[in-house]
UniProtKB/TrEMBL annotation, chains A, B:
<comment type="similarity">
    <text>Belongs to the HMG-CoA lyase family.</text>
</comment>
<feature type="domain" description="Pyruvate carboxyltransferase">
    <location>
        <begin position="6"/>
        <end position="273"/>
    </location>
</feature>
<dbReference type="InterPro" id="IPR000891">
    <property type="entry name" value="PYR_CT"/>
</dbReference>
<dbReference type="Pfam" id="PF00682">
    <property type="entry name" value="HMGL-like"/>
</dbReference>
<dbReference type="GO" id="GO:0016829">
    <property type="term" value="F:lyase activity"/>
</dbReference>
<keyword id="KW-0456">Lyase</keyword>
<dbReference type="InterPro" id="IPR043594">
    <property type="entry name" value="HMGL"/>
</dbReference>
<keyword id="KW-0479">Metal-binding</keyword>
<dbReference type="InterPro" id="IPR013785">
    <property type="entry name" value="Aldolase_TIM"/>
</dbReference>
<protein>
    <submittedName>
        <fullName>Hydroxymethylglutaryl-CoA lyase</fullName>
    </submittedName>
</protein>
Length: 302, 302
């Protein structure tokens, strides 16, 4: 029988808020994370330990971690750029470390001012610190399906980067369609190319719906055995008036597809929808998910 | 080798404009159809011969048909509700007749004030008139995956309606996800249930992206052998500020997926994009497709 369990990594509190122009209060961030956990989210990326000068929106990572109500069975993770960030994160008691680099040299250089090789070297002690504390490490591979500067990224290039991360000891890979260009054949092809590198149950898809292909890519992933997808509640981080133009795949829309296809996620759709409505009030603007559009229309606030 | 040809029925001039609040001039409608044909669209639903009192936006069907520049190889079709509409359409020289009914009784009654059985009886002479003129007939089955009044529609119910249409002599069926609730498993299931009723190359999918699942449903359709999809350029007919909340799947977004997956449609993407930009100027509001959002952002008018 097909395994129908699918897990979702909720990246709204980090990836979503990082891309919001308005800063959200620490209190609201804590409430956001706690509401997600209450709705059944089992993997929540809480914040980032990137230097505050680079991402001021998430400068309160320590305060957020100190105030959240830790639930049993929930993994509270954070984005970690380097050893300094890892040291801060360990003091906060994170449950998992998320590191990142790009599959394309140009994007990686623009993002972290290093070559891919230099980034891999810099990540080694980060992974070692995490593993010394028995923490799992997730590695984001951005621009895995296309780069804003280089265009299409060759499969071999991505396979090389993933292999290097696995060699470093990274436990799980999240393949990012950072600019939302991927189509299902690319998903299927890259997953096949990675078959010898790490098991598919250690690969997640981090999709953007820029060109309307994210959900088709989810389907291609499911068919290839992927059991973990990243989502941002309400599509937080995207622009509501440019549908899907920059945001992550919306967790609420993802849940609609998964639950009606018979997959189990442990997430309560009603509670998640309540949290999305609450979140919209917090950020004081319409969120771009289809689910929120429907809810606003139903309440006469389309 | 897999057949990579996919056809698209462009329903923007009929289904799209019918759902636009602002009336578009006859001249612009003619230009719209001619631009679509020029871009390579081979199947265009030009207008509707429903009584003008019901759909005043399309009251100029005769004028539009008289003025379009007919291209060799392009099928210019129209929506036909009854014998009176068919007689008007025949005088216009349509290439194909599109008839319609719903899979659910309540939706059908609200739409045409008849039971499904009464609708089928009323369609018989329409199909006969079309066939007497050697015109192919396409039958739309609305609410094939869900009804706003009855909820989920049983597969057997849809199979029964499709079977009745095939028995009437309808040549092709377009399964409509009218309220955009379908998920890929429903697409796969219904197509399998219809396997004994008519060949898959005579089944089209008419999808709405209300919940973000349209493109995943396209993928499920392609995998099941469907080679024809309906689209509305730019997502015309939907609301740009409620992404996908009511509109048809956008042809420009569909083309992105199809072409990058290696399917051939004969449609020139650049010319289609130009037409979408032109159309946006005509209707004087942003169109909801992802492609238009990207184009507006690129030109600084997000």
């Amino acid at each position: 029988m097909k395994d129908t369990r699918v897990s979702v990594v909720e990246v709204g509190p980090r990836d979503g808020l990082q891309n919001e122009a308005n800063t959200v209060s620490t209190e609201d961030k804590v409430a956001f994370v706690d509401r997600l956990a209450h709705a059944g989210c089992q993997r929540i990326e809480v914040s980032s330990f990137v230097a505050p000068k680079w991402i001021p929106q998430l400068a309160d990572a320590e305060e957020v971690f100190a105030a959240i109500d830790r639930r049993q069975g929930v993994e509270y993770s954070a984005l970690i750029p380097n050893v300094r960030g890892m040291e801060r994160a360990l003091l906060c008691g994170i449950d998992a470390a998320h590191v990142f680099l790009s599959a394309s040299e140009t994007h990686n250089r623009k993002n972290v001012n290093k070559t891919i090789a230099e980034t891999l070297s810099a990540l080694r002690p980060v992974v070692e610190l995490a593993h010394a504390e028995q923490l799992p490490v997730r590695g984001y591979v951005s621009t895995a399906f296309g780069c804003p500067y280089e265009g299409r990224v060759a499969e071999e290039q991505v396979v090389g980067v993933v292999t290097s991360l696995v060699d470093l000891g990274v436990d799980e890979i999240s393949l990012g369609d950072t600019i939302g260009v991927a189509v299902p054949t690319q998903i299927t092809g890259l997953l096949a190319a990675l078959a010898g590198v790490l098991p598919v149950d250690r690969i997640s898809l981090h999709l953007h719906d820029t060109r309307g292909t994210a959900m088709a890519n989810v389907l291609a992933g499911l068919q290839a055995g992927v059991t973990c997808f990243d989502g941002s509640l309400g599509g937080l981080g995207g622009c509501p008036y440019a549908p899907g133009a920059s945001g992550n795949l919306a967790t609420d829309d993802l849940l609609y597809l998964l639950s009606r296809m018979g997959y189990e996620t442990c997430i309560d759709e009603d509670k998640l929808a309540e949290t999305a409505a609450w979140l919209e009030a917090v950020v004081q603007k319409p969120l771009p998910s289809h689910a929120r559009s429907i809810a606003r229309r139903a309440s006469g606030r389309a």
